Structures are given as structure tokens and as C-alpha cells.
């Protein structure tokens, strides 16, 4: 990419160097999720990074399930993960790879190591292995089984495979260096005995490879060039290199680590999200308050906004946290031109126009999106009885309140000026209806210039209003008090979900389909819930409000 002026992230710089030096001729990346949960926003970073690099360098992107650990893996997760990756737009061609398809090659790899004198069967218990391993300050001790002959190791490993030993009674270990400063290199376990049914290979195997041995082999078999992973694997890189070198792969892949995405005051991490689901704090993996990709999709996030967020947050070698507000900024940027702007009254109160003919309905042409002329206009019904927001009226307004109050005139968005002449209250003092008069001269589009009003409010005509439920979300975590309570438990925001049951929407919403997004004028962006919406009931999720606390630098 000569002449490129845009600064390149550190991974791109490494790839540029590898290509220039002829280490690789093509870039092949992968995303290797373990099917043990749903993907979250952090995974989206990894997906978009790997896919983006493959695309940028004209290479290939592999989507591979790292399904070597049968206990936790479920077909349900395989399906949801696949759907999430498609949704993000990461094109993985027509093949999904499974690490378990390589069990035979991994087994052969283990035999190759044994034959080279680089692996041995060890009878120490897990506890003993841990003791012998030493720690950061103490070198490890050699296992008494370390010097078994190649023949003995081959025979024992085969017997392990044939199910001749109980679970956990023996392991295969790489023979590296018990005194290494890197504990991962102190004869790591590479195979264990475990009788578990695997979702792909069934009961064919009773021995399974460990991650650090399996992963480099998977990469090498697929011809991955750059195996990009997160920082916690940095200390495992020497082992990764040891495996691909000892197994003598040509053009072996190289591992490059980057920092995980963390969102401030947001629960990410499969394990933590899973606990919220299991504890019933949220209503499933797709609860719109979560940041699993299925939850974000349901809430109304767009793949484009997530991509923009990843670009803004960058790729770094050092840990940092990003602000959720930045993600919201990206959403607003994406939705403001895509979503039609319509009128919805979330907390309705009746407004009656005393001098408007009873039974009459007229229609106004209102822009679908003032910033997008191509979005066109729609007809919006207007009649004697309307709904407005309860908060757009006050009996005794403070200074600078320009909305409705007795004697004041406001503009009804796209229609007429109305002036408040009266209001009614119930026995408890709640306002029940507001009475106004309208001025026919002020009809929108008539060019009326007689006088000005300071406030414009939105409204919905009662005769054709559509009922809806609207769900408002706030952060699951109480940001003001911080993420954790003193006892280490998560500090939940009691207002993370508010359900409004009695919302009134303009008639054009009758065509809204599950998953459609709109801007509710003056309120924010909302999306038709894909799960709880039925033919009889529209349910909306607030995606994001209109206000922003984030300023792009
Ligand atoms: P979690 O950290 O949520 O438990 P995981 O790392 O166990 O996730 P995997 O299925 O093993 O989940 O991850 C697949 C890929 O996604 C890995 O390469 C992993 O490094 C990457 N990944 C996971 N979390 C993040 C994150 N927060 N930011 C960037 N990449 C991530
Ligand atoms: Mg993992």
C-alpha cells in the first residue's frame, strides 16, 4: 500500500512487513469462537478486525468453531454465533470450519511429537502436575515419567486413545523445559482422557487435545497466516510457536495479540453475561439491556454503527476501556439518516380543540426525514381530539417553559398553532384533559407570518392513533455509584427497564414491521421488538435517546 497516508495500526504494520519480506504471499485470518455461549460486542471487535484485514489485503477470512472441548459446547450456540457473524456482515464464504474435524490430524501430530522425543505420557495426578510445575519464582521439577522411551509412550498413548485407562489417570505432555521462565513451557499437558460425547464426533474419542496444542494446529491446517488473538494469550505465544515448529508446518502461522474491548460500566464477558441470564437479572441472552450481539440486534443496533464504533475505538496493544456513549454516538450517526421521523406520544394526555369541527379529519403532508428529501412525505391525520405528552403542559410553568400552559400558544408540529384555554383535573388533582382553540390562519405550509411562537410540540390524532408498548432502557449498571458494590457484587440500576403501556402512535405506524427502526420525534430512536411484538400488539425498544454526552474529538 505505497503512498498510504492514513496511519496504520500495529497489526497492519506487522502484516505489511511480513508481505514485504515474503514471509507470506497472501493474508488468511480467522475468527475462532468456542460454541459455549452467545457472542458479545467484544467478539464483534475480533470478527470485524479479522474480517477487515482479510478484505483489506485481498485475502481470506475463515470462520471456525473452536469446538475441541466437548463439555460446554452446544448446537444452540453454533446457530446463534453463525447468525451473529452473518448479521455483522463478515463474509466467510460458503464454508464453516470446525476444529473437531481435525481431531485425526491432532492425534497424528501428537504421535509425531512422541516419535521425536518431544512428548511423553505422564501418570502424575492433576494435583501433582501443578506441584511439580513450580511457580513464577520456583523452577519446576521433572516428572518421574519424563524419560519414558518412545516405544513405551507410543504404546501408552494408543492405549489412552483406545479407552484402556480411566478418565484423568494419564495425560500426554509436551517435553519442553521444566525450568523455563515461562510457566506455559513447563511440559504443558496436550492431551487428556475424558469420556464425553462430542456434538460433532460423538463417542469416537475419549481423549481430547488441550487448547494450546489444538489451536496452532487448526490454524496451520487452514493456512492461516496471522492468528490474531487477545492479550491474555501473549504468554502462550512461545508454546504456539513451539507446536507449529515441532510439527514442521511449512509457512507456519504467527500469533499477534491485541487488547480486548472493554466498555466502561458494561457487563461483557461470556461468563458474566451467562450469570446475569442464569440469575434471572435479565430476561435471556437477547435481553436488550445486554451487549450480546443478539441483544444489540434486538434492541435495534445496526451492524454499521458497530463497525463505526470499532473504527473509532481502534486496535491497541495495551488495555483500555471505551465509553458506551461513543457507541451511542455511532448509532445516532447511523440512524439519523436511515430512520423515518414520526410522532409518538409516550405519556399521553388528551388535547381537545374546542373550535375545530367535530368529526372532521384533515391530513398534513409531513416530511419523513427533513435531512433526507428522498425519504418523501407522509399524510398525517389531524382532528379535534389529539394526544400530546403530559410533560408538554404545565399549570404553573417555570420561567423559560415555552410549551403549553394556560393562555400560551404553541405550534403543533406540521399543523396549526393552538392556544390553551382551559384544562380539567380529576379528584386527585391529575390533569385529565387540556382544551385549546386553534387558529386556521396558521396552517402549516400556508406561509403564515403573523406572529411567532416559541414552542413546537408533537401530537397524535386520537381518532386513528395506534396503541403500543414502549420499553425504555438505561444502563444495567448504576453508573453513578460505579460497577461494583462493596461486597464485590454488581451494582444494578433499578431503572434499567421502564415499560410504558399506553403509548399512542400516529397511524403510519400500522405498517411497522418487526425490527424496523424509527426516530420518535423529540424522544430518540426506537425499534419494533422482534420477539414480543404480535399481530395485536406493537412493542418498541428504545435504541438510544437523542441527547448525547459524547463529543467526537
Ligand atoms: P469471553 O472473554 O467473553 O469469555 P472468550 O474469549 O472466552 O470470550 P471465545 O469464543 O474463546 O470467547 O473467543 C473468540 C475470539 O473472540 C477470541 O479470539 C477472543 O480473543 C475474542 N474476544 C473475546 N472477547 C473479546 C473482547 N472483549 N474484545 C476483543 N476480542 C475478544
Ligand atoms: Mg475462550
Structure description:
By secondary structure, the chain is an alpha/beta fold. Helices cover 25% and strands 24% of the residues. The protein has helices at 10-20, 41-56, 75-88, 103-115, 126-133, 150-161, 211-221, 237-246, 270-278, 293-299, 303-313, 324-338; strands at 28-31, 60-65, 96-98, 119-122, 171-174, 189-193, 207-209, 226-230, 254-258, 262-263, 321-322, 340-342, 344-345, 348-353, 361-367, 377-383, 385-389, 409-412, 417-425, 431-439, 456-457, 460-461, 466-473, 497-505, 517-520, 524-528, 538-545. Strands 12-25-26-27-23-24-13 form a 7-stranded mixed sheet, with helices on one face. A 7-stranded mixed sheet has the order 21-18-19-20-14-17-22, with no helix packed on it. A 4-stranded antiparallel sheet has the order 4-5-6-7. Strand 18 and strand 19 form a beta hairpin. The longest helix is centred in the first third of the chain and has 16 residues, at 41-56. The radius of gyration is 31 Å and the shape is elongated. The mean pLDDT is 94. The site of adenosine-5'-triphosphate has 15 residues, from helix 2, strand 8 and helix 9. Residues 32-34, 42-43, 45-46, 229-230, 260-261, 268-271 line the site of adenosine-5'-triphosphate (ATP).
What is the CA-based Rg, rounded?
Answer: 31 Å
Q: Could you give a short account of the major beta sheet?
A: 7 strands, mixed
What compounds are bound to the protein? adenosine-5'-triphosphate, magnesium ion
**Averaged pLDDT, please?**
94
What fraction of the residues are assigned to beta strands by DSSP?
A: 15-25%
Count up the helices: 12
Low-confidence stretches: none
As a percent range, the share of helical residues equals 10-25%
Q: Name the shape in a single word.
A: elongated
Derived structural class: alpha/beta
Distance from N terminus to C terminus (CA atoms, Å) equals: 27 Å
State the total count of DSSP E strands: 27
If strands are numbered along the chain, what order do they take across the biggest sheet?
Answer: 12-25-26-27-23-24-13
